[in-house]
Write a structure and sequence with these properties.
Layout lengths: L3 E7 L6 H14 L7 E7 L5 H9 L5 E6 L4 H14 L4 E5 L10 H6 L6 E5 L7 H18 L10 E5 H8 L9 H11 L4 E5 L14 H20 L2
Parallel strand pairs: 1-2, 1-4, 2-3, 5-7
Antiparallel strand pairs: 4-6, 5-6
Helix pairs in contact: 3-6, 5-8
Length: 236
């Protein structure tokens, strides 16, 4: 059976994490890989009760694997989870976030396509997190088209199923703890014409707590990303 690792980064998500895990746990139970599949939650140095909740849940959920690390941001947590999944011999890596914005009910369509594509990435046509976030994503996609010559409908959706071998192929191209790994993974897949497809997903507003990334931080990240994109383009 295929070994699936679901990677979920989490930072100060005490308001959402238990509900999120309970929503996704039936998915990993269904695709348990003879007990080898896991939900890997990477606690990014949370200062609230996120880690305590994860440890409590893991006592009764054997397929839940909590990991913890020093705070380094969403991107470093995603990379941490990807590397761990690859080291543990995952066949497929799926990534989503801890804030309850994605729907586990849409996972099965992606899973059913795993033999046809090497990566299936969500496409957020309608976004519940506001027009500002939609504008940022549209701007990112435009920059990727200008700098890398790739046309993608959604570069950063936290709903993606990838073959582990494909993740390992491109993760080594990224700087350590790179803050936008999913964007660059999508870019690499498109640039090198990997067997990639996009599927529409729903995207709800954050279900609880406060987003640690505000518009001011997004603008700063975007400005830094522009320089990173140009540097990474030279390395292709």
């Amino acid at each position: 059976m295929d070994k699936l690792y679901i990677v979920i980064p989490a930072y100060n998500e005490e308001a959402n994490i238990e509900k999120t895990i309970r929503q996704w746990y039936p998915i990993i139970e269904k695709h348990n890989g003879c007990g080898a599949s896991k939900i890997v939650v990477v606690n990014d140095g949370s200062t609230d009760n996120t880690w305590k909740i994860l440890c409590r849940l893991s006592e009764s959920m054997p397929l839940l694997k909590p990991l913890t690390k020093k705070n380094g941001g969403h991107g470093s947590s995603v990379l941490y989870g990807y590397n761990y999944a690859a080291e543990m011999g995952a066949d497929y890596i799926f990534q989503t976030d801890a804030d309850g914005q994605t729907d586990p009910g849409e996972f099965e369509e992606f899973w059913n396509l795993r033999k046809d594509y090497d990566a299936i990435i969500g496409k957020r046509t309608v976004r519940g997190d506001g027009k500002a976030r939609k504008f940022v994503e549209s701007t990112v996609c435009l920059l990727l088209r200008i700098i890398f010559g790739v046309k993608v409908p959604d570069a950063n959706a936290p709903f993606r199923l990838m073959k582990s071998g494909l993740v390992k192929k491109y993760i080594k191209k990224l700087p350590k703890n790179y803050n936008l790994p999913n964007i660059m993974m999508t870019t690499y897949f498109a640039y090198y014409h990997e067997n990639l497809c996009f599927r529409e997903i729903s995207f709800k507003p954050r279900q609880g707590g406060v987003n640690s990334i505000n518009i001011k931080k997004i603008i700063k990240i975007g400005w830094n990303a522009l320089g990173d994109f140009r540097k990474l383009k030279k390395e292709l």
